[in-house]
Structure formats: C-alpha cells, structure tokens
Q: What sequence folds into this?
C-alpha cells in the first residue's frame, strides 16, 4: 500500500512540475490580453482539454509505441532526464523553457491559441509526454496505471483552474512571486531529471557489466 501511495505521489509531482501551471498562467495572460473575461475562460478550458487529452492519448498509446519501435523504457528515461534537466535549468534561470519554445504569432485566431501554443506545447510538451509514457510503462498492474491516469486528471483540473483564474492570481502574487514559483518548479524538475537519467543509465551499465562476464 505504501509503495502504491509513493508511486502516485511521484506521478503527481512529476506531471505537475513538468506541466508547470505557473508558466502556463503567464503564457495565457499575455496571449489573451485585451480579450474579454469570457473569451479568456473559454480559451483556458479548450487549452486544458487539448493538452491533457493529448497527454492521456500518449499515456494509453505508450505501450504500442514502445513495442512498435522497439524502444526501451530505460532509454526514454535517459532522454526524459536530459529534457527535464534542460527545462528545469531554464526555469531556474528565469528563462522560458527551450522545450516549450513556440511562435506565439503562429496561431489561428484567438481560439487557435488554445490548441497552439497553449495546449501544445505549453501544457503538453515533450517533457509531459515523456513523463506520462514512462510512468505508465513502469507502473505495476491496474492500480499503477490508474494512479498515473488519476494524477494526470488532477493536474489537468488544477491547471484549468490556474489558467481560468490566471489574471487574478498573477495580480495577487505579483511578478516576484511568479518568479519564485518558477524557480522552485525548475529545481524540482532538475531533481526528477537526475533520478530519471541515472535510473535509465543504471540499467545499461548493468547490462554492460553482465556482457563482459
């Protein structure tokens, strides 16, 4: 039971920090500046649905993707660790994550921003796709998979609330508070990145050691 709770908390923390609702709040506030509050709320809802439905799709299709391309979960952990570290380092420095870099003018009208850049890749980017795929792959049984799906849904609902109320929240916490949260999320992502990287690397070094013998 303790292992299941620990895995759920790992999934929840990993997905939340990779999605980084605080960064998404800043993005939606800048993209919807000048729009009505109703339009702002509608874009927040559509962006959340697009982002997390895409993430759920990759979580469910992850097994097929692994089998089709012959990909090892350990290899994805190494790649994910590198992506997370780059993203976390950028956030720690107060920069926009390079793994979520987008052209904010390449949109299809106001509501096009809900799909890109808000839904993809701000909410569902390479990091969140990797996290959801790896977590489902390493989950044990139905309870493990259900824990990951539940974590994705919780983060999805909380992200929608953050986006919906972003104007009010950003006024409340101010620029300094937002920077503190961004740096804190970056630090957590970097720690997760190290765990992912060495977890994947450990498997390959063990295989090399066995092959030598």
A:
């Amino acid at each position: 039971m303790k292992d299941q709770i620990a895995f759920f908390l790992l999934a929840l923390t990993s997905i939340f920090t990779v999605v980084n609702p605080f960064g998404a709040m800043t993005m939606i506030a800048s993209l919807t500046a000048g729009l009505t509050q109703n339009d702002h709320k509608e874009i927040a809802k559509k962006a959340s649905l697009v982002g997390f439905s895409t993430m759920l799709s990759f979580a469910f299709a992850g097994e097929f993707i692994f089998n089709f391309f012959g990909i090892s979960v350990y290899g994805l952990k190494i790649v994910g660790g590198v992506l997370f570290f780059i993203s976390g380092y950028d956030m720690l420095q107060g920069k926009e994550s390079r793994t979520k870099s987008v052209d904010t003018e390449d949109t299809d009208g106001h509501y096009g921003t809900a799909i890109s850049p808000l839904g993809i890749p701000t909410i569902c980017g390479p990091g969140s796709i990797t996290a959801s795929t790896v977590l489902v792959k390493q989950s044990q049984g139905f309870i493990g998979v259900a824990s990951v799906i539940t974590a994705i849904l919780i983060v999805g609902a909380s992200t929608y609330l953050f986006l919906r109320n972003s104007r009010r929240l950003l006024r409340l916490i101010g620029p300094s508070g937002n920077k503190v949260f961004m740096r804190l999320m970056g630090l957590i992502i970097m720690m997760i990145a190290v765990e992912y990287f060495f977890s994947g690397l450990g498997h390959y070094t063990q295989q090399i050691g066995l092959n030598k013998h």
User: Anything to note?
Assistant: The chain has one domain: 2-212. Residues 1 and 7 are 10 Å apart (CA to CA). Helices lie at 2-19, 21-31, 37-69, 73-92, 109-123, 126-138, 141-164, 166-212. The chain has eight helices and no strands.
